[in-house]
Amino acid sequence: MNTLTTKISGWGRFPEQICNLSRPEKYTNLQALPANTIPRGLGRSYGDAALNEKGSVLLMERLNRFLQFDSENGIIRGEAGVTMADILKVAVPEGWFPAVTPGTKHVTLGGCVAADVHGKNHHRDGSFGDRMKSLELITASGERIGCSASERPEIFWATIGGMGLTGIIGEVETSLRRIETAYIAVRHYPASNLEAVFHSLSDDAVDDYYSVAWLDVMAKGAHLGRGITICGHHATMNELPVDLRQSPLSVTLAPKKNIPVDLPCWLLNNQGMRLFNTVYFHRLSSEQETIIVDYDRFFYPLDRLDHWNRLYGKRGFMQYQCVLPENKAIEGVRELLEYMHKKDCPSYLAVLKRFGAAGKGMLSFPTQGFTLALDIPVYSTTLLPILDAMDQIVLRHDGRVYLAKDARMSGTVFQQMYSNLPAWQLIKKEIDPENRFTSSLSRRLRMTEAL
Amino acid sequence: MKGPVLILGATSAIARKTAFAFAARGCSLYLAARDEEELARISKDIIIRYGVSVRHAGFEIDDIDGHKSFFSSVVNETGNLSGVLFAIGELGNHDLATRDFNEAGKIIHRNLTGAISILSLCADHLAQSGQGFIIGIGSVAGDRGRQSNFLYGTAKGGFSLYLQGLRNHLHPKGVRVITIKPGFVDTAMTYGMKGLFLVASPDYVGNRIVKALDKSADILYIPWFWRYIMLIIRSIPEPLFKRLKL
To answer: Is the pLDDT of residue A413 over 80?
Structure first.
């Protein structure tokens, strides 16, 4: 296989590193691989999970063949490069929908497994790993092994959430859920402060299959943490307006707009975003009834804008996502928001979700409680110490940070946050004794230290 | 289009994307290539994505003696073909090919002689049914002999001439022959190469190939601007060109 040596980055465009890329075209190319490799999907993780500075990166994007689709029982099997977008195109017309989907459809099955992604329905359905049937892993020795919850479960659960470090995820088999229509019935519930947001996310009367709260993080004082809770479920035929009932499973996706170049960094600024957030909050607050939207608008609003990460200009942005346990969540989120205000460090987009019970992925991120995800533009290097201080707040509240979004956490903090690391390390040592699968992330977090 | 489209060399990136474009129009397919395991995977993938009927069989371009029996079994299985796409190409190792005839011979065989062998059988079959098409994927490299890849260029240039003659031969019989000349395409053939420019995606090429059937062009450069680039390249006088390092 030929290699291309070039600079690549994650979605947050920080860091950028020179890596040696190779791009297999078919499944049988996955043999005789170099040591010091990390597989990469569509590069939607934000930091350095799919980077390997001065090492090899294996682009899995062309290994995207569907292998089986059981449209009776809603089970799909494909090569790891199959994307969520591919699955939607095949499944929705047949009345099936991914059981768990992250906030973008431009992710690969392999990436979904490696990060054990979650969606707006974690509190009901768990994470991606919880809905998986099986996977085929190609190990460091070139062996193809099948694993599932009942067959080699320790390798299965080490790979789910294992950030691609146990081997190459070659094939993935996952289950879908039945839908009657391609539309979502949505309700908005405004909340005037943080307590109100938490209350509505925990309120059974408000709760729905999918729920998420958008927070106006720039609001201060009495308005701190005000937001809108957005809830939805797959619309039944009865819920659809008459004109949509003709072809309930077909959706014409609106044309995408592209951001062709980096916007100058002054365009997206504090004043502008403060204004935008206030206007958005008040606009959504006035929507009281149930509205019907197509699945693409509900699940993937940002996908409409190709390269939306360019809105943040060349300096890019950081994503910070943490989860805090139920009993400490509200005070932890309050402390984080107040700290950011104190440091005059604005977040431009903030989302709060409720998580259900943790899955069995050894290094999986979700635990029971609430997760907060923040977009923070990078204006200067003083942002890094601020994020370190936020790590300490999270640690003090027994929480942890999401690896798929992390670009700068320290190994010490990581090891304190992920108590299952030693158990994972044992499996890693067994299945990849020479540590042939490494990434910039695994080295930065010292994930295989003491092995 | 009633019978399936036969795609020779179906496992390449361009062929696979062209197969998608045919399947999106509801065409059934017959895929042939050397790697039968990969053929099975690709076929299943197309069936799941597009719901068309896809059959497949192994095909070895190097095995000239086997071409006749291969083609007979395709025709027996399918009845008739609506058209053929020839998508087999071998860039080869140019440096080695200039010194070792085994390598040069391989390049000539896979891009030219083997193609002539199988396409003659296809041409005969289509001529008898009085309909259909043959699409041959050539290359801009065949437009002029250049120091960087002239063995490949020779084969592709020869292939272009063959398709041209075949076009003339089959015209009165109602069979269309289209020559496709891609420039740089983002595939395993070019991955990691230096000095690439204006690289097209296999998606784009596949879509343009199938769209060509809706129009009347006989020779199609993909993307279109290569026609003008090659016009310029071809018009450079030989005494000057031989001094260049293109």
So the answer is: yes
Tell me which residues of chain B have a C-beta less than 8 Å from any C-beta of chain A. Answer: 11, 13, 35, 37-38, 41-42, 44-45, 48-49, 187-188, 191-193
Interface of A with B (CB under 8 A): 1-4, 21-23, 25-28, 62, 64-69, 79, 86, 89-90
**Which of A22, A25, A65 is closest, CB to CB, to B13?**
A25
List, in sequence order, every beta strand (DSSP E) within A56-167: 56-59, 66-70, 75-79, 96-98, 132-138, 144-148
Closest CA to B6 of B144, B119, B154: B119
Residue B137 pairs with which residues in a beta bridge? B180
Q: Is the pLDDT of residue A48 over 70?
A: yes
Strand order in the sheet with A56-59: A3-9, A16-22, A56-59, A37-40
- Is A3 in contact with B192 (Cβ distance < 8 A)? yes
Please report the sign of the dihedral spanned by the C-alpha atoms of residue A64, residue B46, residue B118, residue B178. Answer: negative
Task: Kindly determine whether residue B37 and residue A69, on different chains, have CB atoms separated by under 8 Å.
Answer: no
Question: For A57-73, how does the pLDDT look when each residue is reduced to its tens digit (9 = 90+)?
Answer: 999 999 999 999 999 99
Min distance B89 CA to chain A CA atoms (Å)? 15
Lowest mean pLDDT among A68-77, A197-206, A406-415, B146-155: A197-206
DSSP, collapsed to helix, strand or coil, labels residue A265 as coil
Percent composition of chain A: helix, strand, coil (DSSP 3-state, to 5):
30, 25, 40
3-class secondary-structure state, position A371: strand
Tokens of A102: 């992250």
pLDDT of res. A344: 83
- For residues A337, A339, A343 and A345, what is the CA-based torsion angle, rounded to 10 degrees? -30
Q: Which residues does residue A306 pair with via DSSP β-bridges, in sequence order?
A: A258
For residue A119, give the DSSP letter. -
d(CA A78, CA B199): 28
Helix (H) or strand (E) holding B241: helix B238-241
How far from the centroid of its chain's Cα atoms is residue A160's Cα?
A: 13
* Cα–Cα distance for residue pair A188/A280, rounded to 1 Å: 12
How many CB pairs lie under 8 A apart between chains A and B?
48
Q: Which amino acid is at A404?
A: A
Query: Cβ contacts (< 8 Å) between A2 and chain B: which residues?
Result: 188, 191-193
Instruction: Report whether A41 contacts A61 (CB < 8 A).
Output: yes
For A353, the 3-state DSSP assignment is strand
Cβ contact, residue pair A27, B38, below 8 Å: yes
A-chain CB neighbours of B195 within 8 Å are none
Is the peptide bond between A15 and the residue preceding it cis, with omega within 30 degrees of 0? Answer: yes
Q: For residue A127, give the DSSP letter.
A: -
* A20: chain B residues, CB-CB within 8 Å: none
ipTM of the complex model: 0.93
Alpha-carbon gap: A24 to the closest alpha carbon of chain B (Å): 8
Alpha-carbon gap, residue A319 to A333, rounded angstroms: 16
A265 pLDDT exceeds 60?
no
SS3 of A188, please?
Answer: strand
The region of weakest confidence among A41-45, A231-235, A282-286, A344-348 is A282-286
* Rounded Cα gap, residues A276 and A291, in angstroms: 23
- If phi > 0 it is left, if psi is from -120 to 50 it is alpha, else beta; for residue A116 that is left
Chain A residues inside the 8 Å CB shell of B48:
66, 68-69, 90
Kindly report whether the global pTM for this prediction surpasses the value 0.90.
yes
Q: Which two tokens stand for residue A195?
A: 């307590």
B35, B42, B193: residue with CB nearest A65? B42
